[in-house]
């Protein structure tokens, strides 16, 4: 059984987490893998008065969210509980926006050397050229099958070599070689994984969407809705312009050959009755077909001349 002090701390933590989720439903869920205590301290100090950084064990977080969901079923705490996995923490925006929090998180990065056995998070190439290492250390390159040559008393790489790949384990020889070259390929910072806003949880990729992208997706959705409504025959506001356009074309086709007209179709009937008027009203549109016809006539004349020449050449040398 936990002591009274531990139990009181747990209850206080549960109450704080549920209160923030219910009353401040605007938070970022961040991954804190490989984050140092100094980074965490700097971020807390930078966000003091603007946001609340709350970390905890996953078991305690799930328990608190489960309890809070029974009391506040409309707050979306069950959705939060479903994604709690790994080293995740909360940053609640109390007096700032989520963009301000992301800007602060981007400031505090930590470079790290590659260690044998860990999974690489980047693709890394060692560039060709001088390495600054003396010829006695060629064994490190030979262990990794890297082509080298000795120039002016130092080792040079013949070509670029990919020593790290995303998701692959760092080999012992690769880690030693990178340390020898003074390369620190990894960079760690708090990564935003999810966004919790207004009882909904969505991926952090939504934060990178611009207004142009949103407008484009909205217009694409309107176009799809208009096409679907026209196909199934159900009138919608998005499909009304297309419906009226098709209806007008049908009416114009019906009254084109009869002695009946109305204001909107008068111009159409004038163009159908007198094509020359259409050509005069649209000189650019009429010029293109005319030019094409001229070229066709030239080609036809040329073909006729060639046929006549071929007929003239038909004679028998021994006749």
Automatic annotation (TrEMBL):
Keyword list, A-Z: Ribonucleoprotein, Ribosomal protein
Record domain Large ribosomal subunit protein uL10-like insertion: where: 114-183
Residue ranges of the region described as Disordered: 287-319
Bias-annotated ranges (Basic and acidic residues): 295-305
Composition bias type Acidic residues, residue spans: 306-319
CDD domains assigned: Ribosomal_P0_L10e
Stretches assigned to coiled coil: none
Cell cycle in keyword set: no
Keyword flag Cell inner membrane: no
Protein family: Belongs to the universal ribosomal protein uL10 family.
Physiological role: Ribosomal protein P0 is the functional equivalent of E.coli protein L10.
Protein name in the entry: 60S acidic ribosomal protein P0
Native source species: Durusdinium trenchii
């Amino acid at each position: 059984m936990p002591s009274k002090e531990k139990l009181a701390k747990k209850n206080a933590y549960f109450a704080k987490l549920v209160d923030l989720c219910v009353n401040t439903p605007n938070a970022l869920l961040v991954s804190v893998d490989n984050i140092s205590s100094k980074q965490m301290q700097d971020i807390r100090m930078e966000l003091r008065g603007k946001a609340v950084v709350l970390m905890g064990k996953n078991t305690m977080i799930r328990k608190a969210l489960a309890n809070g969901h029974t009391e506040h079923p409309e707050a979306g705490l069950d959705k939060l509980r479903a994604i709690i996995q790994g080293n995740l923490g909360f940053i609640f925006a109390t007096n700032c926006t989520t963009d301000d929090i992301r800007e602060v998180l981007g400031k505090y990065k930590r470079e790290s050397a590659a260690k044998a056995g860990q999974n690489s998070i980047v693709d890394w190439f060692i560039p060709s050229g001088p390495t600054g290492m003396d010829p006695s250390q060629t064994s490190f390159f030979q262990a990794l099958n890297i082509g080298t040559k000795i120039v002016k008393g130092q080792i040079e790489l013949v070509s670029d070599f990919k020593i790290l790949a995303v998701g692959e384990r760092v080999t012992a020889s690769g880690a030693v070689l990178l340390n020898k070259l003074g390369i620190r390929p990894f960079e760690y910072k708090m990564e935003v994984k999810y966004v919790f806003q207004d009882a909904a949880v969505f991926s952090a990729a939504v934060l990178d969407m611009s207004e142009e992208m949103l407008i484009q997706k909205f217009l694409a959705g309107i176009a799809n809705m208009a096409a679907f409504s026209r196909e199934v025959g159900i009138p919608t506001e998005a499909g009304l312009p297309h419906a009226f356009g098709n209806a007008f074309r049908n009416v114009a086709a019906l009254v084109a050959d009869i002695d009946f007209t109305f204001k909107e179709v008068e111009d159409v009937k004038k163009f159908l009755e007198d094509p020359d008027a259409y050509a005069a009203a649209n000189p650019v549109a009429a010029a293109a077909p005319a030019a094409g016809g001229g070229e066709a006539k030239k080609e036809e004349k040329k073909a006729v001349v060639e046929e006549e020449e071929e007929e003239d050449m038909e004679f028998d040398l021994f006749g």
